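ok here's the first one, seq then struct tokens
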Amino acid sequence: MALFLFSLAGYAGGYVYDRWSTESLTREERAAETEIDQEKEPFTSSVTYDTSVPHNFKIVLDRPLTPEEGETLQATPVEEVWDFLRPLGGRLIRYPASMNPASPDGWTWHGTSIPPDATVFTMDLLSTRTSQLSIVGMTPVNISCAESTAATVVEFSPQGEASYPGVVVDLREEDPTPYISDEGPDQGLPYFGHRRIDLGGGLEPGGLRVEALVHGQSCEWEIRARYRDARDNTDEVVLRDGDRPFFAEALPDRPQQYWVWGHGFGDSEGNPFLPCHEMPDEAGCAHLLGNTS
């Protein structure tokens, strides 16, 4: 009987020790995995510029159109203009989305006499960490602006662009801030004052539509993103377009050629694009050319 009790005690002691050692090893493994997880990049980003043709647009080229190209442009339907100019080196510039915030504190570009020039891209954000983290702030940084290199503008006049979910950043501001561009009560309010982007922990990648506004000068810029991890630590990551800064292009101040399509415009032969560089005193041209200075 004593031998049985001694054996039982030994078995129990061994069981407790094995369980303790297993739990200790598990804790050590988890701690090591957590450390390895924390050593991974918090998140990465990839950028895709929106080159889909909106209802209203501006296209710029770094050279004047030849007389033959000008004639072709005037004979080209509006919906085919991008297909014609893109192979010639054309670059698409958008009109800004509508911003009519319900909140009296909401930001909007409306109220300015000239709509700014907009560049739109989608930023996909991915974290491979097993623990979750949250992006809680984004600030445009390292903004560098210069005169546009474009020589030609082809413009399809605005009728108003719809708003889209995402953010709008006015690079003309002294301290640019991402504002909510979604329709609704939050439109025009600081994005990260009301929202955050959760990543990692098995969550789907996050995506953010960014509309950057400029006027008079084209700008390169970066984004400093602040995040909070599962340990409640905060840190920052500078986001770029791969190895390049983001880029937002503006119309040139005084283009060599300015072709305009719009309601009430057109020449006596019915061509939809008016060469304002050849007829600056035309009512519509005088107004537009005056706005470029």
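and now the second one, same deal
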Amino acid sequence: MVKKYFGFNTSLSLLFCFLFLGTTIRWTTTSIEILVFIFMVSLYFFKKKKEVFVLKIPREQQIFLYALIFVLFSYLLTFVLGKGWELESIKRPGYPSLTDLDIPTRYFLGIFIVLLFLKLKFNLNKRIIAYCVGIGAIINGCFALYERYILGMQRVDAFVGIAEMATASSLLCLFSVIFYAFSTSKKEQIFFAIASLFAFSASFSTAARSAMISLLIAFCILQIVFLFKNKRMFKKTFVAIGGMLIVFSLLWAFPVGKDTFRLQQIQVDIDQYAKDNPQTSIGMRFEMWKEAWTMLKISPVYGMSTAMIAKRTNEIIQKSGSRIRSENDLGVRGTKHSQIMEALAKRGIVGLLALLLFWWTSLRMFGYNLSQCQGEELKYRICGFLTILYFIFINSFTGEPWDSMVDTPMIILLCSLFLKFINQETNEKENFSHYHC
């Protein structure tokens, strides 16, 4: 049956290839999400036959889908009850602004993508996509080294932004190390080891502290998993990590600017904040969190839409005691540089519960049977599990990847991709067990 849809399988596989090859471009993730949605809906309507559909979706995957729907519900609840449509568009005066529906739209597409990935029978080319992960890692590394040492940029950003470049490069580095550990071919091992070093250099060249720390934590957890599952891979991965230490030393030895990785700046920012100067990276975050807490107290259940924030801007500034805002400052509507505080401020308790449920179901889904599975299934379960953990760690405390125009589609597409790979492995094992020699 899969051969009947060879053209569809190849086209969809190529879309995911472009996803990994184009992480240096800002519009890549959203464009790929839209195209994947169109492809999946096309398969559903134009190939509507019984053999195309999966009869039963595993329970943990069903719960994950329900959690994703709950996240979308929390956004729409705030928009409707917060009267989000009352905000006037800046570009088109007299018309309502639909800015609060930007992120929900991505979740809306994501829900259908995940559902159709689970419900429809098709296969993706794992080998080609894996190679594109490695190539994408090398591309990011080349961009970073060019911007750092040719253009003299202390924090590289490509065409996507510093935080997004850091996230994409860290994930490509993580996946490359995992593929390196599972590869049996010497050529593939060399390729993925080199790719991981390039991606590592890109991630650390952004000097995004949250991404660097999250990547290191993900590596620690990966090594713990390998220690209990496969000691050979545990030892093998140290080779790649050793190479990263060398890259780290070289970046440190040949800096661009005084504080290469902005580590000393942490203490400077805290000292400045203590001296009543909030105009620093960390100090401004503290003030934004105060604003978010005030917004939660004003509307604790479903949070505040942008229209509500616009009406009560001065009240938020005054009650929070924010020292980075002046009267009628539109900046209050912006992000709060913490996923937890962002959810509480703009979607209230309902939004936070939806976010936490999404985290838990995601980890449960990829962690299911992790102690017993082997081979390719283990590889993709680790990829999915560490992807979610990466975004939960420091990223969610100092940023808002789950409310991002770039990162949110990436999260949903990666979850869909690794779910499909896991299900492909499960189906192949079942077909093999029913095959009689």
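notes on #2: The mean pLDDT is 92. Residues 127-253 form one domain.
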